[in-house]
Design brief:
Length: about 1000
């Protein structure tokens, strides 16, 4: 009562006095997504039968689950798992549990006990195997938790006695992924292993119980399991232990060797891998030879056993065995050479040589009288069941591999020979005949691989005349890839005699007459052939050049590709043979001067009297110095008047382009410098005094010229950025600086010619964004841009962001005219992307006729040099006489890569057009596509709530650059017949 009375008094008093109450703090609302576990629980409760439950689980599997909801969902699934009686539903639940355990950010250590408990009462073998697979996922998610690993190993040991092969496979996978070689097992685990061993009914397993138990011994017990799938799983589990940096016991080697004769190819395949692993771990260990008192190294014994597998009944095992032999580099040379020696077998008995039989007869004092039939036949009798078709050891392994009926085996044998020959020059000499014989294989892929292999070991071999004759016979192959690969092989191959050089030249000239499109490849081949064999070419010079010591001979035609090929061979040999030019006639010296200018990449500089002294040295030091001096001379144009500066730039550009034509090593660098100076020259002409001092209506023509110059500068900067490779950040910053100047010039010209204020405002905003992007991208290169246009603008950048458009234009005009030429710093090497269209040649006057409305397939063959990612950037453009243009993107399979920084494009372009009255020419050329954006240079932004504070990136500019000379082709669409 007293408390109630006090409360009434306080209420009445507060009404009179009106004591202000403190406002209650506002409650914060937290929006949460509906729980996945609750929704799943509701769905599973609604299921009336196993089909409905399975349908709900399938629908749930298609939806993502948040990390914080994973544990709740797993609990719901486990709860329903205990209630479910249908095996298919439990199997699906077990599969979902494994998928949920892989969720990123979720640690499954809290549910390990629950998962292990599900194994206790499970009767279905399939569900049990799936649950073990889920435990395998959990174990791989918790590699640093030794307690979980040991528990899972004990679980695997417990279920190894299951009758279902799938359960035993999963247990072995658990042991292979999680087992450690010295992992101590608990007393329960040892008891489980003991019970597993007693369940196995093989003597080998019972005997193995006496040795110390570890994971490897448990797995090796299942090498003799009755199911081949379990034997395969046991071998793969042991290989997984090896991949996990666990050293396999050497005692496993004997068991793995026995499995090489298993009835199932999967077991034999895994056994080959196991034997190879042990041969790499214990190469110097000594193992006994069966039925003999001798001992050999383990790696040699393994090499012989794997060599036997090259004659296996399964071609997949044969492929694997051949590939494995190629990686056994520690084998003894004696065993290695036996792989190329095929013993003669007669009725499964070894056939002794006549010398051996005569020696035995002489020792016994008996000779064949001829009265008895076959009294000199081999006396030794061998058991047919114990004789192997290959003689002892590795005899004839590669002979069988190279003669296999499956081309995959032959390719694997060729690749293995290559790997072994590269590490052993003596073996390379012995396998040369076998590789040359593979040039006549019926499969093109085998022939091509044999050529590539011979190219890789060419430094160890010298071809004889009979071998070279077999090699050169491939030049008549119709495949362009084969012929070009053979040209590449001859470039790096040594021959033994001058007759070999003469034979190679004659066959290459036949190839040139039969396939004129191989001209460039043959010329390059003869260049290297001559430079590698100068002493062998020297006695052939009078015959090759058709010279005579007393009589004048007619001057050959310089337009003949065959004569040019002979000169390329002779001139490259003369570079290393100073006595050879004395055999040249007068017209040969003239032809040398001509070829030195026109084909400088094929003809080297020679020390001859009739040649200019600038070719005296064979180095590029002098041209490099001339290039640097030209750039230094250009840096002085700030002190010259406008006409003199422009004339100096013109002369320098001409010199640089000529230097690029004469010196192929500096062609990319010289062209890059000439293009950059061309941009500066265009900018200088656009900023002439008379253009900016006249009124706008009076300089309309000059304004148009300046607008065209600004657009041309932009196009040239894209060429500089995307057509040349080897550029550093400093050169890229210089290119973007010139592009910024061109954009400023465009903005000034827009303000002078277009009176609209809205267009000017948007152009000014875009330019300010470009300036900000330039500053952000090239902040580290700003110290190298002193007194440049960009540096002066960045000094007044805050003012540019807030000033009016007219004032911004005035600042840009003043800064642009006062900025100095930015000195170009060159990297060590710059390459220009080039393309040469070999076919069509454009020399034929016969039009290609096809019916109007249908298509004509035009073969395109082109060589690409220094093109980055050609599959995505190279396109073919077809320009028709009526102005239509089609751009075709070749397929990725149309590109080949015969060498570094070199690609080959062989494709077909389909043409179609309406009927014409006369044949007309179409132009075909190659384009290089590019995409320029400042945002592409920035790192990708992470996930954030807002990006309002980020500057707007520069708009992406996409375009194409022609980088090949156009080829004209006559076509004639005929009207269709009625």
């Amino acid at each position: 009562m007293a408390a109630h009375l006090k409360k009434r008094v306080y209420e009445e008093f507060s009404k009179v006095v009106q004591i202000p109450h403190e406002e209650a703090p506002a409650k914060k609302l937290r929006l949460s997504k509906p729980s996945k576990s609750a929704a799943l629980h509701i769905d599973l409760c609604k299921a009336t039968n196993s089909t409905d439950a399975l349908q709900y689980l399938l629908q749930f599997a298609r939806k993502p689950v948040e990390t914080e909801s994973v544990e709740g969902v797993i609990r719901i699934l486990l709860e329903h798992y205990y209630k479910e009686t249908d095996n298919s539903v439990r199997l699906k639940i077990a599969s979902l549990l494994g998928l949920l355990s892989k969720t990123q950010g979720f640690s499954p250590d809290c549910i390990v006990d629950d998962f292990i408990n599900t194994l206790t009462n499970e009767k279905s073998h399939q569900v049990l195997a799936q649950l073990l697979d889920t435990l395998l996922v959990i174990g791989t998610q918790l590699p640093e938790n030794p307690t979980v690993r040991h528990r899972l190993i004990e679980v695997a040991c417990k279920h190894l006695s299951d009758m279902y092969f799938g359960v035993r496979n999963k247990c072995l996978q658990l042991l292979g992924c999680l087992g450690l070689v010295d992992s101590p097992l608990s007393k329960d685990g040892e008891d489980l292993i003991l019970s597993v061993g007693l369940c196995l009914s093989t003597p080998h397993t019972l005997n193995s119980l006496n040795r110390p138990r570890d994971v490897q011994s448990i797995i090796s017990d299942y090498f003799v399991d009755q199911d081949p799938r379990v034997r395969t799983a046991a071998l793969k589990a042991m290989l997984q232990l090896h991949d996990g940096a666990v050293k396999i016991h050497e005692i496993i080697y004997e068991q793995a060797c026995r499995l090489l004769s298993d009835d199932y190819e999967q077991v034999r395949s895994a056994a080959v891998q196991m034997v190879w692993v042990l041969s790499q771990l214990y190469p110097e260990s000594i193992v006994p030879i069966p039925s003999s008192n001798e001992e050999i190294r383990l790696v040699d014994d393994a090499f012989g056993k794997i060599s036997h597998m090259v004659s296996d009944g399964s071609w997949m095992v044969r492929v694997q065995a051949a590939k494995t032999l190629g990686s056994m580099l520690q084998v003894s040379p004696h065993f290695l050479e036996q792989t190329l020696d095929k013993k003669l077998m007669s009725d499964l008995r070894r056939k002794r040589t006549a010398h051996e039989r005569a020696k035995d007869l002489f020792a016994s004092g008996e000779f064949s009288s001829g009265r008895k039939w076959a009294d000199d036949a081999p006396k030794e009798k061998l058991d047919r069941n114990t004789v192997n078709l290959i003689a002892s050891g590795a005899c004839g392994a590669f002979v069988h591999g190279l003669e296999d009926e499956m081309f995959e085996v032959r390719i694997a044998a060729v690749e293995a020979l290559c790997k072994l020959a590269r590490s052993s020059p003596s073996f390379a000499e012995k396998c040369l005949d076998f590789l040359v014989d593979m040039f006549n294989d019926e499969i093109e892929e085998v022939r091509l691989q044999s050529i590539h292999v011979l190219r890789e070991i060419s430094t160890h071999i010298t071809l004889r005349e009979d071998q070279l004759d077999t090699v050169l016979a491939v030049l008549e192959d119709s495949s362009r890839d084969i012929r070009e690969a053979l040209h590449e092989l001859i470039c790096y191959t040594n021959v033994s005699t001058k007759e070999c050089v003469q034979l190679a030249l004659l066959e290459l000239l036949k190839n040139l007459s039969k396939y004129p499109t191989d001209r460039n490849s043959i010329w390059k081949c003869l260049k290297f052939l001559g430079s590698r064999h100068p002493t062998l070419v020297l006695p052939l010079v009078p015959e090759l050049l058709n010279t005579h010591p007393y009589f004048d001979t007619p001057e050959p035609d310089m337009d003949d590709p065959a004569y040019i090929a002979v000169l390329v061979l002779v001139f490259n040999a003369a570079k290393s043979c100073p006595t050879m030019p004395a055999l040249f006639s007068d017209h040969t010296f003239r032809h040398y001067a001509y070829l030195r200018d026109s084909l400088s990449h094929l003809v080297p500089p020679l020390r001859v009297n009739l040649v200019d002294s600038r070719y005296g040295s064979g180095s590029v030091e002098s041209p490099q110095l001339f290039l640097q001096q030209s750039l230094n001379r250009v840096s002085t144009i700030q002190n010259l008047e406008a006409p003199g500066a422009q004339e100096l730039l013109d002369l320098t550009i001409r010199d640089l382009r000529r230097l690029g034509e004469l010196q192929t090593e500096l062609a990319g660098t010289a062209d890059f410098c000439a293009t950059y100076l061309r941009c500066q020259l265009l900018l200088m002409k656009a900023l002439q005094e008379k253009l900016w001092n006249m009124a706008i209506p009076l300089c309309f023509k000059q304004n148009v010229t300046a607008t065209a110059a600004a657009q041309q500068i932009l196009e040239e900067t894209y060429k500089l950025e995307f057509l040349y490779s080897g550029l550093k950040n400093r050169q890229v910053a210089t290119i973007h600086h010139v592009r910024l100047q061109a954009k400023a010039l465009q903005l000034i010209l827009t303000a002078r010619s277009r009176p609209g204020l809205e267009t000017l405002i948007s152009s000014c905003e875009k330019f300010v964004q470009d300036m900000a992007s330039f500053q952000r991208l090239f902040a580290l290169e700003m110290p190298h841009l002193q007194d440049s246009f960009a540096e002066k603008l960045l000094e007044v950048m805050p003012r540019l962001s807030s000033c009016k458009p007219v004032e911004l234009v005035k600042i840009l005009q003043t800064t642009l005219r006062q900025s100095s030429l930015l000195q170009l710093a060159l990297p060590e090497q710059i390459h220009r992307a080039t393309a040469t269209i070999i076919e069509p040649t454009g020399e034929s006057d016969n039009p290609l006729r096809f019916t109007s409305g249908l298509v004509l397939a035009l073969d395109i063959d082109a060589t690409l040099e220094h093109v980055q990612d050609p599959q995505n950037t190279v396109k073919v453009q077809v320009l028709y006489p009526d102005g239509q243009s089609h751009v075709i993107h070749p397929k990725p399979g149309d590109f080949r890569k015969p060498g570094p920084d070199r690609h080959r494009l062989i494709t077909q372009v389909y043409l179609s057009h309406t009927s014409w009255t006369e044949p007309s020419q179409i132009e075909v050329r190659l384009l290089l596509a590019y995409s320029s954006s400042s945002s592409s240079s920035l790192s990708k932004l992470g996930w954030c709530d807002s990006n309002d504070s980020l500057p707007t990136p520069e708009a992406t500019v996409e375009g194409t650059i022609p980088f090949s000379k156009p080829v004209k082709v006559f076509i004639m669409p005929k009207p269709p017949r009625r």
